[in-house]
Amino acid sequence: MNQLVGYDNIIPLVAPADKTSNDTATPYMDLKGVNRAAFLVIFGNIDSGSTDTLTITVEGATDPAGTEAAVAFTYRQSGAVGANTWGAVTAGATTGFTVALTDDNKMYWIEVNPDAMAASDYRYIRLSVDPTVASQMANNLLAVVGLLDTKYKMTTFISATASASS
Prior knowledge:
It contains two helices and twelve strands. It is mainly beta. The longest helix is centred in the last third of the chain and has 6 residues, at 114-119.
């Protein structure tokens, strides 16, 4: 089954850009009234003067202005550009997972269980992409899309970003 079909609220969270040495955190997505939540992380060229890597984590928060905490999730890595392949679903620990320099021009499908977030009183989630040694990252072409499967289908969605819906 195509997992993307079930998501009806698609939110551009990080526009395609070269994030170079910056830690990048998306805006929060509000999980109120959501069955499923996902992120699609799209990498272009990743380059560093050394063996630096990127770490992807998902963070939950009770309030978008409050303190966030890393949460568990699942993810899959795409094959090479032009290939219609995806890796196996893998559990992502709260410490996140590593994206190597050889993983450029690939995508990551990341899913978060809203029920598990609610059990921890986390209504908001965001994605964080952080280079291990920020000063040495030469290129980090990145875009992030948020996807929500809402419980109540609408023609016009209520804003799902925390700044507008808190």
